[in-house]
Design goal:
The protein has a seven-stranded parallel β-sheet, with helices on both faces. Strands 7-10 form a two-stranded parallel sheet. It has a two-stranded parallel ribbon with strand order 8-13. The longest helix is centred in the first third of the chain and has 21 residues. Helix 5 runs parallel beside helix 6. By secondary structure, it is α/β, with parallel strands linked by helices. It has a domain of 225 residues: NAD(P)-binding Rossmann-like Domain (Rossmann fold), CATH 3.40.50.720. It is built from eleven helices and 13 strands. Bound molecules: nicotinamide-adenine-dinucleotide. The site of nicotinamide-adenine-dinucleotide has 29 residues, from helix 1, helix 5, strand 5 and strand 7.
């Protein structure tokens, strides 16, 4: 059976993508997850991370799991040797923007060296199909909005994390130029939020959340006292930062559609595609939507702008509609309702 190798498949976006793939009635791949568990949880005595066990339970399907670091060439070689890998979906990375400022070398190691090691192993095993988790952060400071794929990348990126995503895209362009066998879809995510509607899988950040929605959810559930709103004087609808939030299940469906693009053989080389809704919401709009969905009050306090934060960004999603026949279907209300269902049913995440 052909295999789909998913690096970082035990994490937030990875687990929802594995779920979306396995929910396809005619899905013809075995799923092989490689994850070093640096940001995923496996209970003592279990063979697999909790997220994957729950997906197996919900779908009745089996997931192959290997605790391997993508920087471990031999470990990856063994996995590729055991399975007939046709395509790789590459999520594994460190992703905390603030931490990347303190630990740039760790971010280069994990995100760039790890990615190059994975590519070497793919090439050695003649696997050339890749779906890469990129980010709207590669656009840096927007020159115009909405952000389309023609917008320049690499200028004014404010964090080492963002630069690792940009450098990886440049490396992938060079790879595609070096050998036409490579086919790479780089999915530039906007802001993934929410959780699977079952409430059984969701975002389970280690420590204090870095992103808005899990932070709000933890305030609503009483784990954190209040939300700090960084910047209330931006030139936006209510002075707070505006972002294009996308439901993680829509994002996961985008990967299912991207995989189908390989079958249709309609592209070659490096293909960047935005995954966003095309609509931006402010911090206060998200807080209000979350309060409405949860019935809880979310205490919010004004704080100064953070260095490097943008006032606003949102996607032009036309390329995804054209190339993948994909559009985000879920509303901000759905995002908040599903995030709340997950958070309230699992107040301590997977450790509960
Ligand atoms: N969540 C977001 O806001 C967002 C936005 C844009 C892009 N992305 C990208 O999407 C991808 C997935 O993000 P996420 O939110 O699911 O993060 P996550 O931390 O939940 O998932 C990443 C997974 O990769 C694993 N991992 C990390 N380093 C590894 C290594 N060296 N070897 C093997 N496994 C490793 C972690 O244990 C984790 O399970 C990342 O590449 C991230 O940069 C995320």
């Amino acid at each position: 059976m052909p295999a789909l190798l998913v690096t970082g498949g035990a994490g937030y976006v990875g687990s929802h993508t594995v779920m979306a793939m396995l929910e396809q009635p005619d899905f013809e791949y075995e799923i092989v997850v490689v994850d070093n568990l640096s940001n995923a949880y496996r209970a003592e005595g279990d063979k697999k991370p909790v997220a994957l066990l729950r997906i197996e339970e919900m779908t009745g399907k089996t997931i192959q799991f290997y605790e391997v670091d993508i920087r471990d060439k031999q470990g990856l070689n063994e996995v590729f040797g055991k399975h007939d890998v046709h395509c790789v979906v590459h999520f594994a990375a460190l992703k905390a923007v603030g931490e990347s400022v303190e630990k740039p070398l760790e971010y280069c190691q994990a995100n760039i060296t790890g990615t190059c090691t994975l590519f070497e192993v793919m090439r050695d095993h003649r696997v050339y199909n890749l779906i890469y988790s990129s980010s709207c952060t590669v656009y840096g400071e927007p020159e115009r909005l909405p952000l389309d794929e023609e917008h320049p990348t690499g200028r004014g990126i404010s964090s080492p994390y963002g630069r690792t995503k940009y450098f990886c895209e440049e490396i992938m362009k060079d790879l595609c130029a070096s050998d036409p066998k490579w086919k790479i879809i780089s999915l530039r995510y906007f802001n993934p939020v929410g959780a699977h509607p079952s409430g059984r899988i969701g975002e389970d950040p280690n420590g204090i959340p870095n992103n808005l929605m899990p932070f709000i959810a933890q305030v609503a559930v009483g784990r954190l006292p209040e939300l700090k709103v960084f910047g209330t004087d931006y030139p936006t609808i209510d002075g707070t930062g505006v972002r294009d939030y996308i439901h993680v299940v829509d994002l996961a469906d985008g990967h299912v559609k991207a995989l189908q693009l390989f079958h249709r053989n309609e592209f070659s080389g490096f293909c960047p595609i935005n995954l966003g809704t095309g609509t931006g919401y402010s911090v206060y709009q998200v807080v209000a939507a979350f309060e409405a969905a949860s019935g809880r009050r979310v205490a919010a306090a004004r704080a100064p702008r953070r260095a490097g934060d943008l006032a606003a960004n949102w996607a032009a999603p036309a390329a995804a509609a054209r190339l993948l026949a994909w559009r985000a279907a879920r509303s901000l209300r759905d995002m908040c309702a599903d995030a709340w269902r997950w958070q309230s049913a699992n107040p301590d995440g997977y450790r509960g």
